[in-house]
């Protein structure tokens, strides 16, 4: 069986699309982070008659990016330096655990 994970930008959009794409025949369960739900249903997908769909969403931003502290004062940095500056990536909201939540849904696919 083919398993398809789809991620929408907002929880309400994930549920609306799951409802439409499943003809109203979906089941909902709470995600591991407690903030996002997963809507599941069976249907055809790219020639497969019985694909298993998991439709969820993110809540807010997943990752935030920034420059290291020495780049925070734009008056002291030449604009061209930003092209080669390192970028710091971190979880946008550590209470939602969005990266871990998405990873757990992917790994269970």
- Tell me which CATH architecture applies here: 3-Layer(aba) Sandwich
The first-to-last residue Cα distance is 11 Å
The CATH class: Alpha Beta
**How many strand units?**
6
Average pLDDT: 90
Percent of residues in helices: 10-25%
Strand order of the largest sheet: 1-4-3-2
Largest sheet: 4 strands, mixed
Compute the number of helices. Answer: 2
CATH-assigned fold name = Rossmann fold
Kindly describe this structure.
The chain contains two helices and six strands. The chain starts with a strand and ends with a helix. With 109 residues, the protein is an alpha+beta fold. A four-stranded mixed β-sheet has the order 1-4-3-2, covered by helices on one side. A two-stranded antiparallel sheet has the order 5-6. Helices cover 19% and strands 34% of the residues. A hairpin with a 6-residue loop joins strand 2 and strand 3 (37-45). The protein has one domain: Rossmann fold, CATH 3.40.50.140. The radius of gyration is 19 Å and the shape is elongated.
Short overview:
This protein is α+β, with helices and mostly antiparallel strands and 109 residues long. It has a single domain, classed as Rossmann fold, CATH 3.40.50.140. It has helices at 11-21, 98-107, and strands at residues 3-8, 27-30, 37-45, 48-57, 63-66, 88-91.
